[in-house]
Structure formats: structure tokens, C-alpha cells
Amino acid sequence: MVNESAEQPVKDTARNIGPVILLGPPGAGKGTQSKRIVDHYGVPWISTGELLRDHVARGTALGLEAKAIMARGELVPDGLMYGIVASRLREVDCHNGFVLDGFPRTPAQAGWLDAFLAKEVFENKADHTPGNLQNSPPIVIQLLVDYNQLLLRIAGRRSCPTCGRTYNIHTQPPRVDELCDVEGARLLTREDDREEVISERLAIYERQTKPVADYYRSQNRLIAIDADRPMEAVTAQIFSVIDGNSRGKG
Ligand code: AMP
Questions:
Q1: Confidence at residue 246, expressed as pLDDT on a 0 to 100 scale
Q2: Catalytic residues
Q3: Is residue 108 part of a domain?
Q4: Going by fewer Cβ within 10 Å, which terminus of the chain is more open, N or C?
Q5: What residues line ligand 1, using a CB cutoff of 6 Å?
Q6: Rounded to whole angstroms, what are the CA distances from 21 to 79, 102, 104, 172?
Q7: pLDDT tens, position by position, 171-211
Q8: Biggest CA-to-CA distance, the chain
């Protein structure tokens, strides 16, 4: 077996880290931090925004229903969300854990998720499914960011329509203005990242998603992290939280 060099962070894919939930407003860095957790621990990233955008792109019935709602920056009805999330979490790659990004977004969704995980434990134990994902309770991490920082981060987000690479014109710009470093394609702003939609999304966050943090806080399950610091510092703290919580694969 080849040892990793001392400079590279050592990947840690041998453990069941269980469900990790990242909470935070749009632009808090959930996507970036999720990717780092995924790369480090080898668990899947489950972004409900991405799952929905995939449905929209494929033109499914659900995608057609969700498209206009998403373009307005509003929340897709819970009933639609539960089906998508349940079927994704039952996939085999989730058995050692996963990172949930963008879900739960309302206290009702948080309650549903708790009930779903509890039910799956029962069902999996009953049929002795090995290595099931519910061996540990979810680790709930809230990323705290200053409001003005958020506006700057969201308004600066761009992505490549060809390869999906993401940039930020303020914090992570492409080498040539508005063009993808790899594909040379003109970068796009997500429909719901446009200035007029951003404030609506942040208002919705305040109104509906903050109560999710309250839900977990009231049960002593919320770990709040200052995400206004450099990304590396935030990542290091997240890893130490996960390392302190995860349990041996069994
Ligand atoms: P995101 O990429 O997480 O910012 O999500 C983009 C959009 O997808 C949101 O503005 C909502 O319209 C929709 N969406 C994503 N996750 C959820 C969720 N858990 N509940 C309801 N709508 C969601």
C-alpha cells in the first residue's frame, strides 16, 4: 500500500460517519464544505437543490412542477421533497453516511427526517441489512455567516454550462473574466442567484429555515461554526466535529 505524502491530507474513508447535515443560508459555503467532506470521508453529497435541478433538466413531472417555484426562490412543497430524499437515502452508497446539503429546510422536514431515519433503523435491523446508514445520529452543523458577506458571495457565483465547475467572481475568479478555465465557455449565473431573487431567498431562509436550527438547538444537537473565517479553517473544524462523533465501522 502506498503511503500518502506528508503534505496531503490523509483521506479517511474507513469509518461510518453517519448522516451529516449542513445548515446555513444560501452562500454560507455549504456546497464547498460538502465537497470537502465528501472527498475526505468518501461519502456521497446529497444536495436537494441539485436533485431538483436534475429533475428540471430532465423535464420529469416533478421537475416541471418544481421549476417555476425554484425560479421564484420559494420552497418546493414538502410532499414532493420527501419522495426524492427517501429514495436517494435508501441507495447503497449512503450506508456509511452522507452529507445532506439543503435539507431539512423547514422544521416539518426535520421532523420527517428524524422519523425516516428511526423507521429505517427499525426496518434495517429487522432484516439484518449490514452497515446501515443509521448507526449514528445525524451530526448537525450550522454555518454562521454575516449577511453582507452572503450577498457578495451569492451575487458572485458563476458556473460553467459545459463542465459544471463553479467560480466566484469575488473570491474564486476564473483566469479570464466570465470564462471557464477548462472549457472556455461563458459562465452562467444560476437563475435563482440573480440579484432580485437573492433577497427573497435570504428572507425565506430567515423565515423558514432558521426554525430548523432552533429545532436541533432545543434538542442540544446543533453545532454552530463561524463560517466567516477562511474556508480551510472552517473545514478543519468540521472534520474535527465529525471525527469526534463518528464511530468505527462495524
Ligand atoms: P439550493 O441549491 O439548495 O439553494 O436549492 C435551490 C432551490 O431548490 C431552493 O431555492 C428551493 O426552491 C429548492 N429546494 C432545495 N432544497 C429544498 C428543500 N429541502 N425544500 C424545499 N425546496 C428546496
A1: 57
A2: 30, 105, 157, 190, 201
A3: yes
A4: N
A5: 26, 47-49, 52, 69-70, 73-76, 81, 102-103, 105, 109, 192, 201
A6: 20, 9, 8, 25
A7: 889 999 999 999 999 999 987 777 778 888 888 888 877 89
A8: 57
